[in-house]
Amino acid sequence: MNLLKSQPLPFTSMPDRYWWETLWSDPRQILVTLGLKPGFSVLDLGCGYGHFTIPAARLVSPAPVVGIEIDRPILEEAHQNSSALTNCSWLNEDILALKSLSLNKFDFVMMHSTFHGLADPIKLVQDITALLKPNGFFSVINWSPIPREETIWLDMPRGPKTEVRIHPNKLISTVLSASKDQLLPVQIIQLPPYHYGVNFQFN
Ligand SMILES: C[S@@+](CC[C@H](N)C(=O)[O-])C[C@H]1O[C@@H](n2cnc3c(N)ncnc32)[C@H](O)[C@@H]1O
Question: First and final CA of the chain: distance in angstroms?
Fold first, then answer.
C-alpha cells in the first residue's frame, strides 16, 4: 500500500479565472507562436482547467491531447469545458509520477507556469525527454525573474514569490544538463507582460 499521498508542487496553485483569462486572453495565439501545429499530439503537464490545453486540442484535432492535473475539481472543470471535443484525455495524476503512466510518445509536451515548483527538475526533464517523438518539442512558459511586487495585474501583485522565479539561462542549463543535450533550445521569446517561453527540441 502506498502511504505517500501526492501533493501539488509548491507555488503552483491554479490562479482565479478572472485574472488568468485576461492575462492570457488569446492562448491559441500563444500556442501558435510557440510552434504548435495541426496534427501534433500534445501532453500538458499541470494543465489546470485547460486554458491552454483546450485551444491546443482544437488546433491539433484529431490528434490526441492529454492533460495531467493533480487537483481533481480543477480537472473536472477541464473535462466539462471540453465536452464538445473528442481528442482530449484528462488524467488526475501527479506529474512527478509521469514515468509510471504508460503514455505514448508526443510531438509537443508543454508545461506552463508550473516548472518553477519543481524542487528537483532533473528527473522530470528526463522523463519528458523519454516521452518525446524524434524532433518533438518541450515548451515551457515561466514567470519572468522580476520581483513579484512588480508583476501587477488587475491592481494586485501576481504569480509565485520572487525567489522561485527562474531566469531563462537557468532553465536552459537545467534542461540541457538533465537531457544530456538531447533537448536543445530552439526558441526563446518574451511573452509580455510578465512571462517568457522557451522551446526545446528533441534531437
Ligand atoms: C499555475 S497553474 C497553471 C495551469 C496551466 N498550465 C495554465 O497555464 O493555465 C499550475 C497547475 O499545476 C497543477 N499541479 C501542481 N502540481 C502538480 C503535480 N505534481 N501534478 C500535476 N499537476 C500539478 C496545479 O494544481 C495547477 O492547476
Answer: 39
Closest of 103, 163, 112 to residue 133, by C-alpha: 103
CA–CA separation, 141 and 189 (whole Å):
9
Q: Tens of pLDDT along 135-163?
A: 999 999 999 999 999 999 999 999 999 99
User: What DSSP character marks residue 63?
Assistant: S
Give, using CA atoms, the residue closest to atom 16 of ligand 1. Answer: 8
pTM above 0.90, yes or no: yes
CA distances from 161 to 8, 10, 117, 150, 158 (A): 16, 10, 11, 11, 9
> Alpha-carbon distance 15 to 45, whole Å?
16
CB-CB contact of 133 with 24 (8 Å): no
Q: Identify the residues whose C-beta falls under 6 Å from ligand 1.
A: 8-9, 12, 14, 46-48, 51-52, 68-71, 74, 94-96, 112-114, 117
Q: Which CATH superfamily is domain 17-202 in?
A: Vaccinia Virus protein VP39 (3.40.50.150)
pLDDT digits (tens, 9 = 90+) for 20-62: 999 999 999 999 999 999 999 999 999 999 999 999 999 999 9
